[in-house]
C-alpha cells in the first residue's frame, strides 16, 4: 500500500496538517479497501507545537520518512526573512531520509523548505500569492507561478495555500487511481473534484456588488456545448454582455480568460471520456470539441504530458465493452 508520511514541524497550521490525513486517509477503491496508509511524524519524535493554542502528539519520529512513498510538508509559522528559520538542521536531516523515488509535496509556504533545500532549483513551483514575490527574490532559480492552485512537476509538487492543499491531494489521488476514485472521494469530503481558475481569483481586488451579473450561468451552458466550436462573441451574447465586459468579468471571477477556461474544460471532458468509455480517440476528440485526434493529442500532451492512448491505458475505469450513452 502507498504510504503517505506527513512531516509536522513546530508551529504547524492545524488545518493544513489535517488535509493529507483526511484526503488520502479517506481514499478507497471500488471494493472499499483503503488505497493509502497515512502516518504523521516530527523531526525528533516529540510533540509538535501548532500555530494554535494546542500541541499535537505524533506517534512517529523521522525514521518513518525512510518508508515514505509520498512525503507531505504542511506550512508552519516562520519568519520568511530569516533564511535559517526555514531549514534547521533537524529538518535537513529528516529530508535526507527520503528515498530517491519518493514524491515530496509542500502545502502553502512549506515550499520555502523545499526551495531552501535546493529541491526546487530549476523547477516550476508555486506558493501562497502573498509570498510569491518574496519567494522569487529569495530563490531566483525556482520558476515561480503565482497564478495556479498547485504545480505538479513529477516527483515534486507544490500547492499554493490552505485549501489548495486539498486540490493537490485530490489531484494526486486522481493521478494514482483515476477520476472515478477522486470524484467519489471529493463527494465524500464534500469538496469539488477540481476548482476552476487559479490563485488570481483570490488576490485582493474590488468585490462586485451582489446584484451584479456573473458569468456562472454562461459557464454552465458552455459545458453542455463542448462538442462544438464556441466563440467569445457567442459566450458574451449568452451572458447578455459586451465582449469586453464579459471578458473582464470572466477573468475576475475565474482567474483565466474564457478561451483558456474552454480549453481546460475540453481537456477535462476528453479525460473523462477516455477513462470511462471505449470510444475511439477521434470520436473522443469530436465529443470534446477538438475536431481531430491530432488536436486532442496536442492539447492533452500540453496539459498533462501524455497522449490520449497512454492516458486511457493508465486511467481506464470501465471494461472494454462499456460505451458512452
Low-confidence stretches are: 201-211, 318-325
Strand order of the largest sheet: 2-1-5-6-10-9
Structural class: alpha/beta
- The CATH architecture of the largest domain comes to 3-Layer(aba) Sandwich
Any idea what the radius of gyration is?
Answer: 21 Å
Could you give a short account of the major beta sheet?
6 strands, mixed
| Overall average residue pLDDT | 87
Number of strands: 10
- From N to C, what is the helix and strand string? EHEEEEHHEHEHEEEHHHHHHHHH
Keywords:
alpha/beta; 2 domains; disordered C terminus; Arc Repressor Mutant, subunit A; 325 residues; Rossmann fold; two-stranded antiparallel sheet; 6-stranded mixed β-sheet; 14 helices; 10 strands
Write the layout of secondary structure elements.
Blueprint: E1 2-7, H1 14-26, E2 36-41, E3 48-49, E4 55-56, E5 70-73, H2 83-86, H3 89-96, E6 103-107, H4 111-116, E7 124-125, H5 132-138, E8 143-144, E9 150-153, E10 156-159, H6 164-177, H7 179-189, H8 216-223, H9 232-238, H10 243-254, H11 258-276, H12 281-287, H13 293-304, H14 308-315
Amino acid at each position: 500500500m502507498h504510504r503517505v508520511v506527513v512531516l509536522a514541524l513546530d508551529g504547524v497550521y492545524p488545518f493544513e496538517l489535517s488535509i493529507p490525513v483526511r484526503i488520502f486517509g479517506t481514499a478507497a477503491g471500488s471494493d472499499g479497501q483503503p488505497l493509502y496508509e497515512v502516518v504523521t511524524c516530527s523531526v525528533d519524535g516529540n510533540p509538535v507545537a501548532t500555530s494554535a493554542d494546542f500541541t499535537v502528539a505524533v506517534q512517529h519520529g523521522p525514521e518513518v520518512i525512510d518508508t515514505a512513498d509520498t512525503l507531505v510538508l504542511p506550512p508552519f509559522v516562520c519568519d520568511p526573512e530569516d533564511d535559517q528559520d526555514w531549514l534547521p538542521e533537524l529538518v535537513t536531516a529528516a529530508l535526507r531520509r527520503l528515498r530517491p523515488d519518493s514524491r515530496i509535496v509542500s502545502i502553502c509556504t512549506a515550499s520555502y523548505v523545499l526551495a531552501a533545500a535546493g529541491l526546487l532549483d530549476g523547477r516550476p513551483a508555486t506558493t501562497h500569492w502573498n509570498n510569491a514575490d518574496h519567494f522569487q527574490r529569495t530563490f531566483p532559480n525556482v520558476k515561480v507561478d503565482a497564478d495556479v492552485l498547485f504545480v505538479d512537476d513529477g516527483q515534486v509538487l507544490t500547492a499554493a495555500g490552505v485549501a489548495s492543499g486539498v486540490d493537490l491531494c485530490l489531484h494526486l489521488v486522481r493521478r494514482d487511481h483515476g477520476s472515478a476514485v477522486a470524484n467519489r472521494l471529493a463527494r465524500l469530503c464534500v469538496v469539488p473534484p477540481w476548482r476552476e481558475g487559479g490563485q488570481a481569483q483570490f488576490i485582493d481586488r474590488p468585490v462586485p456588488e451582489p446584484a451584479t451579473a456573473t458569468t456562472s450561468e454562461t459557464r454552465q451552458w458552455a459545458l453542455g456545448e463542448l462538442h462544438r466550436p464556441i466563440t467569445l462573441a457567442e459566450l458574451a451574447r449568452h451572458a447578455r454582455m459586451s465582449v469586453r465586459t464579459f471578458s473582464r468579468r470572466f477573468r475576475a471571477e475565474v482567474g483565466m480568460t474564457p478561451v483558456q477556461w474552454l480549453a481546460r474544460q475540453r481537456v477535462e471532458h476528453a479525460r473523462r471520456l477516455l477513462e470511462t468509455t471505449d470510444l475511439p480517440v477521434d470520436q473522443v476528440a469530436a465529443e470534446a470539441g477538438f475536431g481531430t485526434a491530432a488536436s486532442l493529442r496536442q492539447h492533452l500532451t500540453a496539459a498533462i504530458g501524455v497522449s490520449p492512448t497512454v492516458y486511457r491505458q493508465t486511467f481506464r475505469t470501465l471494461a472494454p465493452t462499456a460505451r458512452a450513452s
